Amino acid sequence: MRSAQPKIDHAHALRSDFFAGDPVAVARALIGAVLVRVLKDGVILAARIVETEGYDCPRDPSCHVIARLPGAAGAMGGEPGRVYFHFAYRQPLLNVVCRPTGIQASILIRAVQPLLGEERMRELRPVRRSLDLSNGPAKLVTALGLTGELGGQPIDSPSFYIVPGQTQPDSAVEITSRVGLRRGADLPWRFLMRGNPWVSPGTPSAGTTEAGLNGL
């Protein structure tokens, strides 16, 4: 039986209060949710979130670095539910601010599975294999046509928003340490949809956790 397609109209967009809590819990809850991008010519792109990471500066040793990356400084600690892009190797990566204003916390969306508008995504990011369209945090930014003007905007804006998807049980979600970190490397704050081919090829900083032994 095919799973029901999510309702992607703006009326169902997640609002800012969804992001006001613990970013680790938010990152887990977003697995299976759907990113929706409405391009300037009216074309709608939609993709299922299959990989996320949480960053929570009050208890996260990596945050003294993360919060100072280009694009993150001044954005983390802002209003919850705001979009920002931080740059790694000059590539923009998609984040959403979490927790109340004044507390530095966010989630990073690392990979998505195309659902609608794949042909247009291929125009934005020409690739040979569909899997390479959006199986990484920089790739998805290009494939979805995400631009700097979205930075600082609420995640429920008419041109870019997230709608709930099919709820994923714990058995369908792997948990690992995050990718590419030296500090906070052992924190199990990366979530991915088990067995989904669009998950990024990134290697966990400290291997898989007990909850995700059948990992990457």
TrEMBL record:
<dbReference type="InterPro" id="IPR036995">
    <property type="entry name" value="MPG_sf"/>
</dbReference>
<keyword id="KW-0234">DNA repair</keyword>
<dbReference type="GO" id="GO:0003677">
    <property type="term" value="F:DNA binding"/>
</dbReference>
<protein>
    <recommendedName>
        <fullName>Putative 3-methyladenine DNA glycosylase</fullName>
        <ecNumber>3.2.2.-</ecNumber>
    </recommendedName>
</protein>
<dbReference type="InterPro" id="IPR011034">
    <property type="entry name" value="Formyl_transferase-like_C_sf"/>
</dbReference>
<comment type="similarity">
    <text>Belongs to the DNA glycosylase MPG family.</text>
</comment>
<keyword id="KW-0326">Glycosidase</keyword>
<keyword id="KW-0378">Hydrolase</keyword>
<dbReference type="InterPro" id="IPR003180">
    <property type="entry name" value="MPG"/>
</dbReference>
<dbReference type="GO" id="GO:0003905">
    <property type="term" value="F:alkylbase DNA N-glycosylase activity"/>
</dbReference>
<dbReference type="Pfam" id="PF02245">
    <property type="entry name" value="Pur_DNA_glyco"/>
</dbReference>
<keyword id="KW-0227">DNA damage</keyword>
<dbReference type="GO" id="GO:0006284">
    <property type="term" value="P:base-excision repair"/>
</dbReference>
